[in-house]
Design brief:
five-stranded antiparallel β-sheet, Phosphotransferase enzyme family protein, Aminoglycoside_PTrfase, Kinase-like_dom_sf, 10 helices
C-alpha cells in the first residue's frame, strides 16, 4: 500500500523537526480509492526525547485535509495525506474528547458534570468513527465521534428506535461538529460469551429482534449493499495482496452475476451492519438478547444484507478466536446453522460472500503470515457459499 513507508514517515516528521526512530504497521482501513494505514511510531523530538505516536497515512487521492494534515507525494507521484492521532481530518470532534480536560468541557455542554472523567477508547476506525467510554464518579457514557454530516441522523435514528421499543442506547443529543453522546446499554456483547449461548434460543431471539427493527418508521435508506460494489474489493485486493487477486476477482464476478440475477425485495428497516459485537445479551442468561448497538447505518433496505453481514462476521470471528477452542467451535457451528437457514437463497449467498471478501481483504492487508492464512480460509469459504 505504501511503497516505502519509512521514507514517507521520515519526511512527514522532518517537517516538524522530529526524527523517526522505529515504526510498525498498526491497522489498515479501506476507504474510497485507497487505504488509511496506521503506524505505531517511535519519534525523537528536538529535545532529544523519544515519544510514541500513531501516524495515519491516507492513499486516497480525494482524502480530506485540514490545518493538522500534511500532504506528501510518494515515489510514484501519488498524493498522500497524513496526520498524527487524534487529529483525524474526517472526525474534527475527536481531539476534543480524547483528553480528560477537554472531554469535561464537551460533556458540560450536554449538562453532564464530568470533572475528573476517565476516558478509554473503545473503537477507532480512522476516517470513519470513534467510540470513547467516559466514566464519571457516578455514571458511564459513550461519546461517538462521526463525520459531522452524520451526527443529527444518528441521533434521530436512536430516538426512532427507542420510540418503537427497540432496545438501543439513549441519545442525549449531538453536536454539529460530529459528536453523539449515548447512554449505556445493559448486558454484554454476545461475541464475548458465545460459548455459553443456547444457539437455537438465541437465533429465535435474533429473528424476533430483526422483526421488531423492521417495524421502526424511518425516512432514510440503509447503507448500500456491499454486493453492489463487490468489484471494489477485487481492485483493492490487487493493490494489497496480489497473491489473492486472481481468486478474489473470480469470486467477485460470481457475486456480481448471482446478485444481479435476483429480484430486489420490498425495503424494510434493517440494522445495516449486524454482527455479534453489537448484539447485547444478559450476562447471567446469555441466550436472552437485551439490546443492540451501532444503528448508524440503519434505514430502509434489504433484509438479506443483515443476514449476509451477520454470517460474514461469525465466520471471521471463529477464525480470530481459534485459540479459544470452545468459542471458536460454537461460532463455527453457528455459521453453519446460519448458512443452512438461507440455503438456496442466491441473494443472501452473494451478500455473505461479499462480506467474506471484505474480511479477507482486511486480513491480507495485515501483511503477516497469520493474516494471509486467514484471508485464504475466508476466500475458500466464500467459494463454498457461492457453491
Amino acid at each position: 500500500m505504501l511503497d516505502n513507508a519509512a521514507a514517507v514517515l521520515t519526511r512527514l516528521l522532518a517537517e516538524s523537526g522530529r526524527e523517526l526512530v522505529d515504526f510498525s504497521q498498526k491497522d489498515v482501513e479501506p476507504v474510497n480509492e485507497g487505504f488509511i494505514v496506521g503506524y505505531a511510531c517511535g519519534v525523537r523530538t528536538p529535545q532529544d526525547t523519544v515519544e510514541r505516536v500513531t501516524i495515519y497515512v491516507n492513499t486516497s487521492p480525494s482524502a480530506p485535509t485540514d490545518e493538522h494534515t500534511v500532504e506528501l507525494t510518494d515515489a510514484a507521484g501519488r498524493r498522500l495525506t497524513a496526520w498524527v492521532y487524534p487529529q483525524d481530518p474526517s472526525l474534527p470532534s475527536l481531539p476534543a474528547v480524547s483528553y480528560p480536560e477537554a472531554a469535561g468541557v464537551v460533556l458540560a455542554k450536554f449538562g453532564i458534570a464530568a470533572e475528573g472523567a476517565r476516558l478509554r477508547m473503545e473503537a477507532y476506525r480512522p476516517g470513519k468513527r470513534a467510540v470513547l467510554r467516559v466514566e464519571t464518579a457516578s455514571d458511564r457514557w459513550f461519546a461517538k465521534v462521526v463525520q459531522p454530516s452524520l451526527a443529527s441522523t444518528i441521533h434521530d435514528l436512536h430516538e426512532r428506535f427507542q420510540h418503537a421499543g427497540v432496545p438501543v442506547p439513549r441519545s442525549l443529543g449531538f453536536s454539529d461538529a460530529g459528536l453523539v453522546l449515548l447512554g449505556e446499554l445493559q448486558g454484554v456483547p454476545a461475541i464475548d460469551v458465545f460459548e455459553r449461548i443456547d444457539r437455537p434460543r438465541f437465533a429465535a431471539g435474533l429473528d424476533e429482534l430483526t422483526r421488531h427493527i423492521s417495524t421502526v418508521r424511518v425516512t432514510i435508506g440503509a447503507r448500500e449493499s456491499l454486493a453492489r460494489r463487490v468489484g471494489w474489493y477485487a481492485e483493492r485486493m490487487e493493490e494489497t495482496a496480489p497473491l489473492f487477486a486472481r481468486q478474489t476477482s473470480r469470486l467477485a464476478q460470481l457475486v456480481h452475476e448471482r446478485y444481479a440475477a435476483t429480484a430486489v425485495p420490498a425495503p424494510v428497516t434493517i440494522h445495516g451492519d449486524l454482527h455479534l459485537g453489537q448484539i447485547f445479551v444478559d450476562e447471567r442468561d446469555p441466550s436472552a438478547i437485551t439490546g443492540i448497538l451501532d444503528i448508524d447505518t440503519a434505514g430502509l433496505g434489504d433484509p438479506a444484507d443483515d443476514r449476509g453481514a451477520l454470517f460474514g462476521h461469525v465466520v471471521v470471528s471463529s477464525l480470530e478466536r481459534a485459540s479459544t477452542v470452545g468459542s471458536a467451535q460454537a461460532l463455527s457451528a453457528f455459521a453453519d446453522e446460519l448458512q443452512a437457514g438461507w440455503h438456496g437463497d442466491a441473494r443472501v449467498a452473494a451478500i455473505a460472500a461479499t462480506h467474506l471478501l471484505g474480511h479477507a481483504l482486511a486480513n491480507a492487508g495485515r501483511g503477516d503470515e497469520r493474516g494471509a492464512a486467514s484471508a485464504q480460509q475466508l476466500l475458500e469459504r466464500a467459494q463454498s457459499v457461492l457453491g
